[in-house]
Amino acid sequence: MHQQRATPNDRTTRQFVLPEGALALGAGLGTLRVPRAADVPALVAGTNDPEVRRWLPVPRPYTEAMALRWCTEEAERRRREGEGLHLAVTDEDDGLIGTVCLKHTNWRTAQTEVGYWLVPGARGRGLATRACRVLSQWALSATPIERVVLVAATGNTASQRVATQSGFTYEGTARSGGILFTGRTDLRVYSLLRADVPESAPGETTDNQ
């Protein structure tokens, strides 16, 4: 059964709180955990990857100072203030291979948005789908969130596949809904609702040791 949740109007719940440890991606795989200072080199390399920069409006260049601030201050500030939850996607050796997040959270409407990216060597193995599914299902089964949104540029077919393979439903296209470094872009909009999540699939937890 789903665990008991507070209502969206309970002010004490207006931030995401991970269970002790992290969210497990599955047997023999890594976890979704809070970023650390040790993640900085991998975070810098991944964020400066051309394919990541093609679809995400990240700063250019993305520096070590930016990455260190993100890992040690900014990610936690956004969680504490209720904006979202920003996590490292790790491999079986606990090394960062990407990130996944909940963002643009509106606790009044019980809605949030999921986003993600992976380093080149981690792509094509279903890890983005698994990370997206685990975090989204956890949010819907263990927090007051009722709806998770995923948006992808119309040209980003890989991200669109992640959406459908994660169980999201295509809702339509937001014309000129996003901004890339090349200019504005149409966005395909997907959603996952609490009613879409199987009772047995809220996401596993681990002590990450």
UniProtKB/TrEMBL annotation:
Highest taxon listed in the record's lineage: Bacteria
Domain N-acetyltransferase as annotated: residue spans: 30-196
CDD domains in UniProt: NAT_SF
Alphabetized PROSITE patterns for the sequence: GNAT
PANTHER family in alphabetical order: ACETYLTRANSFERASE, RIBOSOMAL-PROTEIN-SERINE ACETYLTRANSFERASE
This protein's name: GNAT family N-acetyltransferase
Organism of origin: Streptomyces tauricus
